[in-house]
Amino acid sequence: MRILVPQLLTAALLLAVFDGACAAPQAAAKTPAASTGLTASSESFSREELDQMMAPVALYPDSLLAQVLMASTYPGDVADAVEWSKAHKDAKGEAAVNQVANETWDPSVQSLVAFPQLLAVLGQDPKWVQRMGDAFLAQPDAVMESVQRLRRQADAAGNLKSNEQQKVSKQSAPPSGTTATTTTVPAGTQTIVIEPANPEVVYVPSYNPSVVYGSWAYPSYPPYYYPPPAYYYPGAALFSFGVGVAVGGALWGNCNWWGGDVDIDVNRYNEFNRNTNRERNVNRDQISRDGKWQHNAANRDGVPYRDSKSREQFGRQLDGKGQRDAYRGRDGARTAERDNARQAMQNRGFESPATSNREARDRAGQASRDFNQQPRARQQAANQNLSNARAQQGARDRASTAQRGQGNNAFAGARNPGQSRADAGRGHSSFSSSQRPSSSRGGGRQMSRPSRPPSRGGGRRR
User: Fold this and answer.
1) From the CA atom positions of the chain, what is the Rg in Å?
2) What does the DSSP 8-state code read for residue 124?
3) From which residue to which does the signal peptide run (predicted)?
């Protein structure tokens, strides 16, 4: 018994651990999924995060807010539009939209260039734009609820009112069972709607979310705030409006508060796209048959989706890209010819054309940096060439000196002993001769001069 008891206790402990490990996955499986349908709660945005990111745009007019929500699902295109707007600071309204008709951006992004003051705000934080788009794709109902929650806060604080620029109203949800209502919105729920006072002119409001919403409920998640440039809002107050923009057909979406999505005005959308593609199939490209907006994954430009549900859903849409290309008249053979021509240019040393606006912009930036570095590179090359020339000249000088001094080299006869002894003997004899007295130096004939006869008197002979 003393031996079996410890063994039984060990077995019981192992069994308990095993049962607990098995029970954990079962408990996780029984946990209800998020209302947005995501596979993991960590992939969804919390209420605090949604209010934090929606605070800067929640008080925009409904039609403008709808365009922002749609456009934010294409963050790469928004970044391109921001750069374009910076380069065309005074372009706005329908005239600006016409200037970007040939850009490959999604139509929802093209419409935003009508509002340079809005792009100035969106351009301050591309990560915020991407998060807002990810939230709208994965949790459209939650995003709409967040906007309404924020509007009620601003209304309670006395900072959301009708004026010359906008019309603020409260509407009740339609009866349940209608096509415009979802089961998540109880009948009779008050919804705050913001519309332009003049349907043809839209004012983009500017406000500080930390003030306009009153006391903020989430200290750990303070609202985002991106102040617009003073260029568009001189002397901005608590709630300011810049210059009104005549939008024309730039706004063709609207918020469906009771359906949790965005509705599309098909006629306005077709009018908006008249300059880009007259044969565009609206129902397949941008909206469904019931007039609801649909995200076009082909315009995402490779930006990854945040949650697994979006990756799975819109990844399948990308699989059907060939069918869309065929419908739009894109010939596969012609595409192959372009690829072959591009490859031939690369083989010959030519750079292939950019495949997107972003790639073209990156190449231009790199070319500018290379151009700025050229003077330094040229100076470095000149210094290197000068150093090489000096080294070569030094080598030639040393070779010439060695060649001239070869006959007078003291070691030239080192390999001929007889010649060396003879030279040494002549040197010794010359040295000895120089050391003897002058009387004993003989080596040549002595010079003699005739003596003069002695004188015989002092007078001259006659």
Assistant:
1) 47
2) T
3) 1-23
Distance CA 205, CA 195 (A): 12
Residues 124 and 160 in one domain: yes
Q: Which residues pair with 261 in a beta bridge?
A: 256
Let me know: does 400 contact 392? Beta carbons within 8 Å: no
Same domain, 314 and 291: no
192 and 322 share one domain: no
| Structural contact between residues 293 and 264, judged by C-beta atoms closer than 8 angstroms | yes
Q: Residue 239 pairs with which residues in a beta bridge?
A: 207
Question: Within a domain: residue 377?
Answer: no
SS3 159: coil
Q: Given CA atoms 84, 89, 94, 95 in this order, what sign does their dihedral have?
A: negative
The counts of H helices and E strands in the chain are 17, 8
Q: Is the pLDDT of residue 182 over 80?
A: no
AA identity, residue 318 = L
DSSP 210-266: HHHT-S-S-TTSPPP--PPPTTTSTT--SEEE---EE-TTS--EEEETTTTEEEE-H
Residue 30 tokens read as 């029984």
Report, as an integer, the average pLDDT of 271-288: 51
Report the C-alpha gap between 298 and 73 in whole angstroms.
11
pTM: 0.60
Per the structure, the complete domain to which residue 98 belongs is given by 45-302
Phi, psi of 313 (to 5 degrees): -65, -50
Residue given tokens 């001189």 in the structure block: 234
What pLDDT, in 10s, does the model give residues 38-79? Answer: 444 567 899 999 999 999 999 999 999 999 999 999 999 999
224-234 pLDDT, tens digit per residue, is 999 888 888 87
Opening angle at CA 175, ends 174 and 181, nearest 5:
60
Domains: count for the chain: 2
Neighbours of 138 (CB within 10 A): 23
User: Can you give 76-111 as a three-state secondary structure string?
Assistant: HHHHHHHHHHHHCCCCCHHHHHHHCCCCCCCHHHHH
Provide the pairing of β-strand 190-196 with 201-202.
Answer: unpaired
Distance CA 247, CA 92 (A): 9
| Dist. CA 91–CA 84, nearest whole Å | 10
φ and ψ at residue 426, rounded to 5 degrees = -65, -35
Instruction: Please choose, from the candidates 370, 404, 83, 115, the residue with its C-alpha nearest in 3D space to the C-alpha of residue 232.
Output: 115
